[in-house]
Design a protein that fits this description.
By secondary structure, the protein is α+β, with helices and mostly antiparallel strands. The chain contains nine helices and 43 strands. The longest helix is centred in the first third of the chain and has 26 residues. The protein has two domains: 204 residues, Leucine-rich repeat, LRR (right-handed beta-alpha superhelix), CATH 3.80.10; 374 residues, Methylamine Dehydrogenase, Chain H (7 Propeller). The strands form ten sheets. Strands 1-2-3-4-5-6 form a six-stranded mixed sheet, with no helix packed on it. 15% of the residues lie in helices and 31% in strands. The termini are far apart. It is found in: Chromosome, Centromere, Kinetochore; Chromosome, Telomere; Cytoplasm, Cytoskeleton, Microtubule organizing center, Centrosome; Nucleus. Keywords: Centromere, Chromatin regulator, Chromosome, Cytoplasm, Cytoskeleton, DNA replication, Kinetochore, Leucine-rich repeat, Nucleus, Repeat, Telomere, WD repeat. This is Leucine-rich repeat and WD repeat-containing protein 1. Belongs to the LRWD1 family.
Length: 676
């Protein structure tokens, strides 16, 4: 039996009423109502209802036929809503709130702004200007793109006389193609864009061509987000501790001599003409500086050029059920950290989508994982979770789509230098700390109320502070490699062993400056280029080593704490600086290595012409140091007329397909380059 009766509605009316048709304001909050409790037959009698409060209930959606023709104000806060499209049945709605519905995102905001033409206030904010942009500018742009796609690729496919089967076939192909190829705006709005593109495409087929739209609906397809255009998004600085929010009041620092040209940027002075013209070397990459953002400022200060930025990682693509989501060739949303904040940035538009702050923290590292979480009615859905850690030794767990930091793990009593998730176990997180330990945690999967249980599975004992960690790609559940203050170490991390606290299994030695082998050196850069090739620095200044994991480490070897010589495949020419903590990264799909220097430059190495030889010729080492394919020079940036100098590049990361390059600096500037 439904919880809602005529008597309850009359009692809950404000003021209390004797007739349903006389009720103008109704409070149905805190009744544990579910969707099935909203009886359309009963609600259809509320002909003059203008204000409805359904907050603090258990609604996951709205019935499609509540028939409230005069509804103007609706409060749905603190429910479990997953979709907003049914709200279109309330065309006169002017004020709508649905805060603390964790499954609703920015895409849903845009959907209601389009569907409800009279909406003025959304979650307490005046959205009049933005809503007009969504309804007019956004729609005009997308309509133009959809029409152009039809004209270019599909109009001529339809014969002059066509059958119903041909109509159905052309519709299916067109809807799939148009959702894949027509893009507009930032990746954070990709779901809204697909939704509108499909709607516009169906209208085009119906209105212009008279095609029947009553055929079975096709599932929404995904698209590449490679357009340079952007739409506005509602944003607000998040000042509260332990709260994620939108953020817009950041500073964009513009190069004083910046031009929008696809320049092949200059290389370093060390390269000789002979080196530059070798057949082995790949051509320079045309790249363009897109954005210079100052979004990690303490207190949002424009004068902050001291906050150090340390880590960035691109958001993974979600697996939408059984259908992989090829929405983009790679994600263009990146998480960055430094100082008291973590930011999510759309690389194409330069928009800071989210900003998370903890006033007493200094964040050193971020990492993504994708958890399959149970939502209402025991259904499962994949969500990206961001882990962030730093000086306090605490890991913050953030459900980004819900704008919610749902928990923390007090992992270490000393600062955490770096974190990373297992590629095979979605809940397994490694934390490397200044306490000279690397811990493996199972962070658990939060339930629908965000209750979760974290447990420590393993502790790896190091002789010095671990700075960088990497799981061996061919056996990520068995071996972990770490670059530490005192050398490069390997541990067996297999969980079927009873021993929970483990010493290192091997330490690697490298050539010293005088050519002798040594294990004593700081390794502040470590990454795998492919399944076997390890890239590390800095055993000596001016050099980055590439070495073979399989040839250096014998997995059948007995005993712990073995000293092994790294089998060097090549050396990369790099800056002669002895400054530490300028780390490196790799783009395995493109065989690229990136490393910044002490002068604000990014050294890029295309090693695609070398990797095959390293794989096929065992023990063969490149005779000479490999020079950079290209060096991206730091542009001349000015703020208040003063030129920024002494820029250190702390980290450089590309997206998986090397479309964007994100550069983190010592002067609180995130630089974003785009490969053209």
């Amino acid at each position: 039996m439904s919880k809602i009766t005529t008597e309850l509605l009359l009692e809950r009316a404000v003021p209390r009423s004797t007739r349903l048709r006389k009720i103008e304001t109704l409070n149905l909050s805190k009744l544990q109502l579910k969707t099935g409790d909203l009886d359309p037959r009963l609600f259809s009698r509320l002909r003059h209802l203008q204000k409805l409060d359904l907050s603090d209930n258990l609604l996951d959606k709205f019935p499609n036929s509540l028939t409230l023709p005069d509804l103007r104000v609706l409060n749905c806060n603190n429910n479990k809503l997953e979709d907003v499209t049914a709200l279109k049945q309330f065309p006169l709605l002017e004020e709508l709130t649905y805060e603390n519905n964790v499954y609703l995102t920015l895409n849903d905001d845009y959907k209601v702004m389009f569907l409800l033409q009279n909406l003025r206030l959304l979650n307490g904010k005046d959205i009049t200007k933005l809503a007009n942009h969504v309804r007019r500018v956004n729609s005009r742009k997308l309509t133009s793109k959809v029409t152009a796609h039809w004209e270019k690729f599909f109009r001529d496919q339809l014969p002059e006389k066509y059958t119903a089967e041909q109509v159905k076939s052309i519709k299916k192909k067109f809807l799939k193609s148009v959702q894949t190829n027509v893009v507009y705006g930032p990746s954070s709005l990709s779901e809204f864009t697909r939704w509108r593109v499909k709607m516009i495409a169906e209208e085009l087929l119906a209105c212009s061509l008279g095609l029947d739209l009553s055929t079975d609906p096709e599932p929404e397809e995904t698209m590449d987000e490679n357009e340079e255009e952007s739409t506005e998004s509602p944003s607000e600085a998040a000042e509260d501790v332990d709260r994620v929010g939108d953020f817009s009041s950041y500073v964009t620092v513009t190069p004083s001599k910046r031009k929008r040209n696809h320049s092949k940027l200059g290389s370093g002075n060390k390269r000789s003409k002979t080196q530059a013209n070798t057949e082995e070397e790949a051509e320079d990459v045309s790249a363009e500086p897109l954005h210079f953002l100052q979004c990690h400022s303490k207190g949002n200060s424009r004068e902050d050029f001291k906050t150090q930025l340390w880590s960035c990682v691109f958001e993974p693509l979600l697996d939408c059920g059984a259908r992989k989501d090829p929405i983009m060739s790679s994600s263009r949303t990146v998480a960055t950290c430094g100082g008291e904040s973590v930011c999510l940035i759309d690389c194409e538009t330069g928009t800071v989508l989210k900003k998370y702050k903890v006033a007493t923290e200094e964040f050193f590292s971020v990492a993504w994982t994708t958890l399959t979480m149970v939502i209402s009615d025991s259904r499962k859905k994949s969500h990206n979770i961001l882990a962030a850690a730093g000086r306090r030794g605490i890991v913050k767990l953030i459900h980004v789509a819900a704008d919610f930091c749902y928990g923390e793990i007090k992992a270490h009593k000393k600062p955490i230098a770096t974190v990373c998730f297992s590629p095979t176990q979605e809940t397994h997180l490694f934390t490397a700390s200044y306490d000279k330990r690397i811990a493996l945690w199972d962070i658990g999967i939060p339930d629908c109320d965000y209750n979760f249980k974290a447990s420590q599975l393993l502790v790896l004992e190091a002789l010095s502070i671990p700075l960088r960690i990497a799981l061996v790609p061919t056996c990520p559940d068995q071996y972990l490699l770490a670059g530490c203050e005192g050398g490069c170490f390997a541990w067996n991390i297999k969980l079927d062993k009873e021993q929970k606290s483990r010493p290192f299994e091997a330490i690697f030695q490298f050539p010293d400056e005088d050519g002798s082998m040594t294990t004593s050196h700081r390794v502040d850069g470590l990454a795998f280029l492919n399944d076997d090739v390890v890239v590390s620095k800095s055993s000596k200044p001016g050099c980055i080593y590439l070495w073979s994991w399989s040839r250096s480490f014998d997995t059948k070897g007995k005993g712990c704490q073995r000293t092994l010589s790294a089998v060097i495949l090549a050396e990369l020419e790099w800056s002669p600086t002895d400054l530490s903590y300028l780390t490196l990264s790799t783009c395995p799909a493109k065989d690229y290595v990136f490393c910044g220097d002490e002068k604000g430059s990014v050294w890029m190495y295309n090693l695609s012409n070398y990797t095959a030889a390293w794989t096929s010729a065992k023990g063969k080492r490149s005779d000479r140091r490999i020079p950079p394919t290209q060096i991206l020079k730091w542009p001349e940036l000015r703020e208040n007329g003063e030129q920024l100098t002494e820029v250190l590049i702390n980290n450089v990361v590309s997206d998986p397909t090397f479309t964007y390059l994100v550069v983190l600096t010592s002067v609180n500037i995130t630089a974003i380059w785009k490969k053209s």
